[in-house]
Each structure stands twice: as structure tokens, then as C-alpha cells.
Amino acid sequence: GNNGNNGNNGNNGNNGNNGNNGNNGNNGNNGNKSNRLREPAVLMGSQEQQPVAHYGFGQSYRGPALKSLLPPASTLSGTASIGTADVSWGRWNQPYSGRGDGNKTGLIGGDYIYSDELTPYKNIQVRTGEMVFSRTLGQQPLLQDGGVRVIEATAFQSQIKVDFDQQRFTGVSMSGDFKQAGSLYQLRAGMEQSTGFEDVLYGAGAIDLTGTVIKNGVPVSVSGGMSADFVGKNADGIISSFGVKSTDGQIGVSGAGGYTP
Fold first, then answer.
1. Could you give the CA distance from residue 127 to residue 124 in angstroms, rounded to a whole number?
2. CB–CB of 77/87 below 8 Å?
3. Theoretical Cys-Cys bridge with 246: which of 31, 148, 184, 251, CB 3.0 to 4.6 Å?
């Protein structure tokens, strides 16, 4: 009720769900943040403390050891630190459909990024303000056309915008150029809608992506998803994988990388 204490959807309601100015209100504007959002369900299974590898079309996998997480025939390409977290990335070069998710890919090859230090959820909740993270780590994404042609990007840029006050991913942008044998492909994609941390982190789900791949001047619509996890003690950066593909599955782009402020 309006002005009601403990009222659901109540304006100015204390503890009101979706309440404006509500203290501790879920999704409430100007409410105290500490209890406003539900925790990711996967935290109940201690996923927060497990190492993670991101790869494929916006997929992430968790387990006790790096070797158990990666696709077959993986090779290490680089390592770096994001805040207090060590991250590594690389590529695999044989057909791989993903664990229990073969309908999403059929990839000839792809990229991964890995870290064993995800940010504890309680440390994410106390962060404030808005921030833009830019892709600075990882190999160039791969484009596939017709399931046989694999082209590495000659240029690629991507950013992820977050609002720690609202605990949401508020924007994703990416653009890339792929050139080979007289063919030019241009990727332009972004977030479909703002997405709460609790629906993405620790393997809870993916950020929806939509966009276009322009093949030799002809636009082809693509869609897909992006996984994301904060790494480092204080959400110092993000590791992520993404993938988008055309409706007929003939054209797809995928990659994995690290993002820093």
C-alpha cells in the first residue's frame, strides 16, 4: 500500500519491495543497498569460492582445478593480474560443443579466460557508484562463417558498464573487424537490456546481446549472450566470454577476455 510499512510495491514503504525511497526495499530507489537485492542462488552451493573458466558462447564453468574446466586441446596464451587476482587465457583448436550445451555452438575453436579468485559477493555489495570496464586482456575474438572459415579479429573493442548502487550491468558495447581473402566482416553488438548482478554472477546466467555482422556490406542480425564475473578482492575487474550468431547459425563470433577500469 502507499505509505504502508512493510508494503509490497509501496511508495515510501519501509522494507517495501520495489518501493521508492524504501529502506531495505528490493529494487527500491534510494533504499539501503545492503538488503535490496537477492543473492545469486548459486552461492548456496559455494560456487563463489570455486575457480572459474569462461568460454564458448557466454558460458562459464566451475570446478576445483583448472584442468577439469577447460576444453580439450587447450593452449595457454597469456597471464596477468587484475587487482589481487591472477588470470590466464588461451585457445583451443578442435571442434567442441560445450558441456551439455551442444546446441549452442559446434565451435571449431575458441577462447577461454580463467581465474581462481572471484570477488566475494559481500565485497561487491559494498561498492558504490557507476564504472566502465574496458577489455584489455585476452586474444582477439574469432568469427566463423559456414562452420568452416575461422577468422581472427584484426581489431576489437568492448566495454561493460556497471552500476554498483543498483547492483546491475547497465551497458555492453562491442565492435570488431574481421578480414580474410577479400572478405570483410564487421561486428556491432550490445546489451539488450539492463541486467542484475544476481542474474549473471557465479554462473547464474548471461547478459543478452543483440547486434549485426556486416558481411561485405550486407547486414546479418546476430544474438547471443555474455557471461561475467568480478575478480579481485574488491571487484577490481571482470572476466567474461561472449558469443553471438545468426538465426541460421552460419555466422558466429565468440571470444573471452578480461576487463579493467
1. 5
2. no
3. 251
Question: Using an 8 Å Cβ cutoff, are 255 and 111 in contact?
Answer: yes
How far apart CA 92 and CA 81 sit, in angstroms, is 22
Contacts with 13 (C-beta within 8 Å, 6 or more apart), sequence order: 1, 2, 3, 4, 5, 6, 7, 19, 22, 25
pTM over 0.70: yes
What pLDDT digit, counting tens, does each position of 210-261 carry?
999 999 999 999 999 999 999 999 999 999 999 999 999 889 999 999 999 9
Query: Which three three-digit cell numbers place residue 111?
Result: 577462447
pLDDT digits (tens, 9 = 90+) for 223-235: 999 999 999 999 9
Of 55, 102, 50, the residue nearest 77 (C-alpha): 55
